[in-house]
Structure formats: C-alpha cells, structure tokens
Amino acid sequence: MSLVPDSSQETPAGFWRWLLGHLTANPLVIGMVVLGTGLTIFIRAAIPILLGQALDIAIIDLNNIYTNEEQINILQNFVTTILVIAIAQFIISLATTITNEWLSWSAQRRIREEFFNSMQNKPLKFHDSVRTGELMALATNDLGQVGGMISPGFNMMSDVFISIIISLFLVIGVMNAPQLILLATPFFLVYVWAVFAYNKKMAPISYTFMRKWGAIATAVQDNIIGAEVVRAFAEETYERNKFMKYVLDFRETWYTRQIIQARYFPTLVLFAAIGFSVFIGSLFVANNESTIGNIVAFNGLLFTLLGPTYVISFAVTIFNGGLAGARRIFSMEMREAGEDIGEVKNGQLKTIQGNIAFENVSFKYPTSKKWILENISLHIAPGQTIAIVGPTGSGKSSLTKLLLRLYDYEGRITIDGIDIKEMSLEFLRKSIGRIEQDIYLFPRSVKENIAFGARNASQGEIEKAAQMAQAHNFIVNDLPKGYETNVGEGGSQLSGGQRQRIALARTFLTNPRILILDDSTSSVDSKTEEEIVKAINAVSQGRTTFVITHRLSTIRSADCVIVIKGSKIVARGHHSRLIHTSPDYRRIFGKNVDLPPLQEISSSTPALGGLK
Ligand SMILES: Nc1ncnc2c1ncn2[C@@H]1O[C@H](COP(=O)(O)OP(=O)(O)OP(=O)(O)O)[C@@H](O)[C@H]1O
Ligand SMILES: [Mg+2]
Hints:
It is a single chain. By secondary structure, the chain is α/β, with parallel strands linked by helices. It has 21 helices and ten strands. The strands form two sheets. A six-stranded mixed sheet has the order 6-7-8-3-9-10, sandwiched between helices. The protein has a four-stranded antiparallel sheet with strand order 2-1-4-5, covered by helices on one side. The protein binds adenosine-5'-triphosphate (ATP) and magnesium ion.
C-alpha cells in the first residue's frame, strides 16, 4: 500500500486520521512516556505531601508522642526518602524526555519520507504551480513544528493533565482533605476558561505564522537561484528591500503571537489560589478542620502546579503551530494525485520497436488558456529521425514532453500501436531518452551524472558513453578531478556545451529505443558540433529519434522535417523538398543562409519519409 494519502481523503476526518496515524504509530512507546510522566509527576507531588507529614508528625507533634531523638530520627528518614525519590524522579524524567524525543523524531522521519515520496510522484503540472521555497519550508519548518507537538508539546500537555489528576488523587486519597479541592475549584474553572480563550486566539495566528515563513523561504529561493542575475543588474538593494518586506511582515505576526502569549494569565490565577488557600486554610486549622501539615502540603502541591500552569501557554502555542504545519503538509500532499510510475497496465510491451504515432493530439498546459498544440497527427517508422522546427514558443518542446506523458493531452499517442496511456510510466520513460533544452545536472560527480539512469554502469561503460558523446576529452583534460569532479548546483560549474555532452553521454548509457534531442547542439562551437552531430548520427542508428534543432547539418540528415507554427503542423517532408516549397520553413533560416528560389507546389504533393 502506498504511504502517500490520496485526494479522496482530503476531509477534516481524513486529516485527523492521517495526523493521529502518524503521531500514534508507536502506542507502546507512547504508553511508556505517559507512565514515565505520571511517575515523575507523582514523585514531584509526593514531596510536599511528605514534607507536610514530616511537619505534622515530627516537628509540630501536637500530642507530644515522640521524644526529641525520635523526632530527629523520623525527620532523617523523611529526608532520606525525599532524597532517594528525587534522584529516582530525575532518572525517570530523563528517560521519559529521551523516549519522547525519539517518538518525535520517528514521527518526523515518517512524515518526511511520505512527503518526499509524495512530491517525487507528483505530475509536472503540480510542480509548475508550486514554489520550491514553499515545499522547502514545509519539509523543514512545518515538519519540525509537527514534531514539536510530540516533543516537547506532548510532554507539556501530559504534564498539565496528569499533574491535575495526581494532585486530586493525593489531596482526596492520601491527605483525605476534599474540602481543600472545593477551595481550589473556582480558580480551576477560571484557569480552564483562560486556556480555551488563549487557544482560540492562538490557532489562526499560528497558521498565518507558518504561511509567512513559507513566503520568506520562497523569497530566499528566488534570490539564491537568481543570484547571478541580481548581481549582473546590480539590483541588490531593491531585492534586499523586497526581502525585508517579507521579514517585517513575518515579524509583525511574531509580535502579535508573543503579545498573546505574554497576556496569558493563569499563573496569576494560581498565585491567587495559593494566597486564598493560605488564608482559608488558616481558618480551617483554627477550627481544627485541618492540620498545619495538610495546609503546607496543599500549598506545596499548588506550587508544583506552577510549572505546568505556566508551561501550558507554550504547549498551546506548540500544538497550534504543529496543527497548522500538519494541515499545510497534508493539503500539499493532497494537491494533485501522484503518479504511480510502476502501475502495471494492459499495454505492457517486452521491447519497443519505435513505431510512433500521434493521432489528433491537442494540448494545453493546465495554467495556460490557449491551446499549445492542436490536432497534431504524425507517424514515424522505427529507426527514423524526425526534425522538429518552428518559431520559438511554437510548442516543439511541449510536443516531445507529451511522448513521455509528462502532461495530459487530448487525442492518442501510440508506440508500436499501443496507447502510451496503457503503458506503465516507468517502462515508457525508461524506453525514451530525452536531452532536455535546459539541461539539469545534479550537484554530484560527472560520473554519477552520466550514470544517472544506469546506476550499475561500470567505469568502462561510463567512459565509453562519454567518448561517444565527445565528452571524454574535456572531462579528463579540463576538469580538476576528471570523472570525480562535482558539477555544482544544476551543473553550474560546466559550460553549456559541456553540460549538453554530459547529458548526451547520460542518454547513450541508458540505450533507449527512442531518443529526443531538444536543441542539443545549439551551444557548442562548430568543431564540437560536427563531432556531436556525428555522435548523434551514430547513436540514432536504429532508434526512432526526434531532434529539435535549427542546425542545417542535423536537419539535412533527418528522414523528415515537421514545421510547427501557431500550434499546428504547417509543413512536413524532407528538407530538400521543404526548402523549395515551404515559406514557413525557409523563414526559420532567415537571411543567414542562401536559399534556393521558392517554388509553387500543389498542396497534393505527397509527404516524404515515413511520415504522413
Ligand atoms: N510549464 C509550462 N506551463 C505553462 N506554459 C508553458 C510551459 N512551458 C511552456 N509553456 C508555453 O507553451 C508554449 C510552447 O512552449 P515550448 O517550450 O513547447 O516552445 P518551443 O517551441 O520549444 O520554443 P523554443 O524554440 O523557444 O524552445 C509557449 O508559449 C510557452 O510559453
Ligand atoms: Mg523548446
């Protein structure tokens, strides 16, 4: 079963099921934490009771039962007992905190893993509409807040609840003084009301708080990615001021949150309760309704509640932060169903021949209003090379993305007669090698980048692929650590041409049946280009190849050329024919190339190559 929830679960109940599922995944360990917290609190509360008893029995000794020596002995016993249980409390408390911390980290690990898988499986249209900075904030800050719900949040909350329960038990069961509970009840009610009021104010601010943090992360991301542009245009001041706006906006929310927290007053209620109980308690003692020891013990107990009472404001803040973070993570995971790339469908092929057909394919990006491609139909026989040309923005790259099913489209695309929607995404994508227009390399070694799709490739195979891509020489001679050189963020430590050749080598190594080369020779010098064209020709032998290029040398050797303009195919055929017949095709070469005279042709001239 997939770890990642699907959008059908995006209901309030679905959210709580998801969150509690993660937070309570280790019930046994949670039980241990509750037990540890209970023991710690019990001991903490028992100490004032023991002191009260020591006072009554050994010091005040109203009925003169004990001799001085006996009193000292009893006192010594009390002191020893208190010391021993205090040490025990320290050890239990330490073990409980560590266990709780482990619980928190294991919940964070699980959610982080799930979040990563979820993002990994999202279709490209999801990533088109979500900011990387926002995802980073969710994976770090929001997730940390969710972890905070367990440690220290759960610790603090259970401290409060268990303290109250144990105090009640001690006052009624051990001290046998229920009248003291009545005394504290009004204060308790005010306290509960204050906590609820505080929570109501805190919840919305916590969500805003996280959202604004996400905005800061996004602004940082923009500036880091665009660092070169910002410097080139000397726009640092403007960018800094823009960034500061986000920071100040965040600070505003932070202040509001702190002020709400500072105004929180239950400790005041507790001090009032202590004062009141001393006063009423002395009346009880005067009327012989209670002993001095009991009153001292009760006040001691109230003092032990001081910590939990104070801490509950932090606990409420932490819980609200965690809930807000969890909601944001959950709703991001719910956005767009993930792709199951391994899902086995009907159209599984053993091998691919490379017979490709587009039948009336129309496409627009989820974010765009107009059609990018309309009614595209074409057929390519196995092993043929097709060049796609057209003005910039005409949809050439988009057309090839559809073959990988990176986006959804209308119409039908088949490989060897099988609809690609019937194939598993993994099989489809592994059968197609694509060198994208903006090549992205991982900030890893050259070697790892080349072997990206073929992780088990040997050094020899990697070098062979690099040689075929004309990359071996520059890797060995120009890069400081050869194949071990780290290429930097996105491959930034390499030139455009070098990046292309690494990408080419990466594709050679995976040995796909279908090859897509998007402008792959545009940024290399003419000598390298010649070499690459040679390499491409060699590698495209026996493979169905799409090349998107305006290089005459590549286009000329293609079996067929299609010209896309205004979202439609406006011409198709071999270069030698189109150059004479298609004004749109001729326009691509502009004034730089000497073109033969344009011939009038009839529209019924049959298409060449294997294309229809
Ligand atoms: N991820 C996207 N989301 C929305 N619109 C997009 C996206 N990618 C491209 N477009 C739009 O789709 C249209 C076709 O883009 P495409 O990248 O396919 O053009 P192209 O023919 O490859 O251009 P070029 O020759 O400049 O590479 C453009 O108008 C572009 O603005
Ligand atoms: Mg393009």
